[in-house]
Amino acid sequence: MAHIHKPKVIFSATLHLLNTVTLLESFSYWLSMPHFPLLLSPFFLLPMRQFAISDIHGHLDTFKALLRQLAFSKRDELFLLGDFIDRGPNSKGVIDYVKALQAKGRRVHCLRGNHEQMCVEAPNNRDYWRMWLQHGGKETCASFASQDYTVPEKYLSWMKELPLHLETEGYLFVHAGIDTRKSDPLADQDSLLWARNWTDKMDHDWLDGRIIVHGHTPTPVEDIQLSVHAVDHLPVINVDAGCFAKKRSGMGYLCALELGSHALTFQKNVG
């Protein structure tokens, strides 16, 4: 009678042993996976950051240098506010690099700028074509080794598909500006792509607490810094530091705004 419970004890011990083996096998499996060491690394403890950059204008080397400064990683999110092309030496390279980042799974969101708009309108509009060539289009064509001042269709299609505005919590991104007096400000393509000197007409109630981040108008570094300090009074930040305009006072930089802290990072034009 003293041995009547032994089968239950043996079964329980055996089950415990099997569970232990299964646990060890599972741990060994995860330990063998290439990404397991990353799970233990400080990388996974870092917070996600969000950045806004505008008006790269064909300056691929400068764009890459700025991302290196930021230590831009897979955890981060990037909003590019248009004018990837024209003026600088490598418009094709900028687009290819942005598309490559997206293909790697990086969270990169792009807006259309007025220079992309001129480029896509140029093939069917002589006025746009002349205006585009006079404002950097020739440099863009050179980056594509184009002899007839045209851009390959797949690049035009990419530009055509770019939206005119983007939004994330607390922020509204446009390329140029916005006319809040219109019945539907986000449908006003002319203002979104071309507006200048528009902030004095802004309806703060329409913004509903959002901050507008934009580019388009080259602005000295000092003025950009001042706009960040004054954002509670005027909720607009222009991040176009005139990368292409190296000879203008206070310009010749590519600027990144970190949304969470409003920290600014400037990269001098290196090509």
Report on this structure:
The chain is an alpha/beta fold and 271 residues long. It has 2 domains: 6-37; 46-268, 4-Layer Sandwich (Purple Acid Phosphatase, chain A, domain 2). The chain is built from 10 helices and 9 strands. The strands form 2 sheets. The protein has a 5-stranded mixed sheet with strand order 3-2-1-8-9, covered by helices on one side. A 4-stranded mixed sheet has the order 4-5-6-7. The longest helix is centred in the N-terminal third of the chain and has 27 residues, at 6-32. The termini are far apart. The relative contact order is 0.14.
Give the strand content.
5-15%
The average pLDDT value, as a whole number, equals: 88
Give the C-level CATH assignment of the largest domain. Answer: Alpha Beta
Could you say what the CATH architecture of the largest domain is?
A: 4-Layer Sandwich
What's the shape? globular
Which structural class matches the secondary elements? alpha/beta
Domain unit count: 2
- Largest β sheet strand count, sense and barrel closure: 5 strands, mixed
The CATH superfamily of the largest domain appears as Metallo-dependent phosphatases
Helix content: 25-40%
Query: With helices defined by DSSP (H or I, 4 residues minimum), what is the helix count?
Result: 10
* DSSP, total strands: 9
Given as residue ranges, the uncertain stretches (5+ residues, pLDDT < 50) are 1-24, 38-44
Oligomer: single chain
Strand order of the largest sheet: 3-2-1-8-9
Q: Per CATH, what is the topology of the largest domain?
A: Purple Acid Phosphatase, chain A, domain 2
Give the ordered list of helices and strands: HHEHEHEHHHEEHHEHEEE
